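Need residues for this backbone.
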């Protein structure tokens, strides 16, 4: 039976000294390494960003469909009105 081993990919990120100190404080409170806390934070940010973008895209699609239907109705009314002249 083949096992699927997950390998971490290293990512180098520069942060300000102040942010690094705050990260170390949070990591100490959690009993984790700063790199672990940073990895969790990046994962949460990416998940939130994808959720937000997905919701925004859905809202735009809904709005476009609604506006498209309204414009179509208006154009049909114009065509009917022109035909009566």
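Answer:
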């Amino acid at each position: 039976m083949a096992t699927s081993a997950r390998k971490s990919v290293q990512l180098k990120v520069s942060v300000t000294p102040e942010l690094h100190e705050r990260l170390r404080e949070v990591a100490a409170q959690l009993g984790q390494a700063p790199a672990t806390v940073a990895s969790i934070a990046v994962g949460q940010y990416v998940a939130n960003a994808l959720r937000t973008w997905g919701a925004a895209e859905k809202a735009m699609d809904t709005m476009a469909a609604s506006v498209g239907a309204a414009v179509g109705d208006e154009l049909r009314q114009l065509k009917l009105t022109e035909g009566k002249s």
